[in-house]
Write a structure and sequence with these properties.
- This protein has 279 residues and is an all-alpha fold.
- It folds into two domains: 52 residues, no CATH class; 205 residues, MetI-like (MetI-like fold, Orthogonal Bundle), CATH 1.10.3720.
- 66% of the residues lie in helices and 0% in strands.
- The protein has 13 helices and no strands.
- Helix 3 packs across helix 7.
- It is globular.
- It starts with a helix and ends in a 15-residue tail after the last helix.
Length: 279
């Protein structure tokens, strides 16, 4: 690739990066502006003239932020664990076993990716009501109503199946010769070799669950079980909204996602299974 081509490529990437990060910068700018500054001024002012951190403090006073944070953390982490468990369990036979109708089952599962959750939301809600998985019956059932509908998905199964298919069959055959059971091969051998894929699935699941607003706002009636997106909605009034507080709350709610990504990003680089088989 010539220098001109590299320069054009880098310029395009920089431009796309600026466009992608601009909404975050605008949100941060709004959160740092004081009450004396008009956040809807034209032309827009990205650098605050009345810089203040008071909005971040007021968020904690306006809503029980810690409670909403704990609820979101419990729901997100439980969903991540169940997704990793169920997706890998479903993907293992689809990748490593031979049985009649395997491809048909996989394609049927894969086809559900094209179905938006909004189209089946009413059916899922009715099932949740029938199973008494709402906060009306207690805190535990309220959590279960938030977690179980997202405990497994077609994307996770597809991702884990692809990871299992990339592993050499000799590893599995050697384990069976040594007397390992199917479950032991899946749990003790194959799962550790797919850590990069597991981390990708964990990050995507955590981000999706942490930012979920529609489903919790429908299922929950008890404010003590509100997740962060639903709790931050309380900062919006009927006739007016304090966008400075909403922006500050949104910035704070992004921190756990960034921390989770930082701690899992090292597993994105594959190569855990290199050297498992020699020659």
């Amino acid at each position: 690739m010539s220098r001109i081509s590299k320069l054009i490529t880098h310029m395009i990437l920089i431009f796309v990066s600026i466009i992608s990060i601009f909404p975050f910068l605008w949100l941060l700018s709004t959160a740092l502006k004081g009450n004396s500054e008009n956040i809807f001024s034209y032309p827009p002012n990205l650098i605050p003239l009345d810089l203040t951190f008071e909005n971040f403090v007021n968020v904690w006073k306006q809503i029980p932020f810690i409670l909403y944070f704990v609820n979101s953390f419990i729901v997100a982490m439980a969903t991540v664990v169940l997704n990793i468990l169920f997706s890998s369990l479903a993907a293992y036979p689809l990748a490593r076993m031979e049985f009649k109708g395997k491809k048909t089952i996989f394609y049927l599962i894969l086809s559900t990716i094209m179905i938006p959750f909004q189209t089946i939301m009413l059916s899922v809600y009715l099932i949740v009501i029938k199973l008494h998985l709402t906060d009306y019956y207690g805190i535990i059932t309220g959590y279960l109503g938030l977690i179980l509908p997202f405990a497994v998905n077609a994307f996770g199964i597809f991702l884990m199946r692809s990871a299992f298919l990339n592993l050499p069959k000799e590893i599995e055959e050697a384990a069976f010769i040594d007397g390992a059971s199917v479950f032991e091969v899946w749990f003790k051998i194959l799962l550790p070799l797919t850590k990069p894929t597991l981390s990708v699935l964990a990050v995507f699941t955590f981000i999706g669950c942490w930012g979920e607003f529609l489903w919790p706002s429908i299922v929950l009636t008890n404010k003590h079980l509100y997740t962060l997106p639903v709790g931050l909605n309380d900062l919006s009034g009927i006739f007016s909204s304090n966008w400075r507080l909403i922006a500050a709350g949104a910035i704070i709610s992004m921190i756990p996602v960034l921390i989770f990504f930082i701690f899992t990003q090292k597993f994105f680089i594959s190569g855990e299974n290199e050297g498992a088989i020699k020659g």
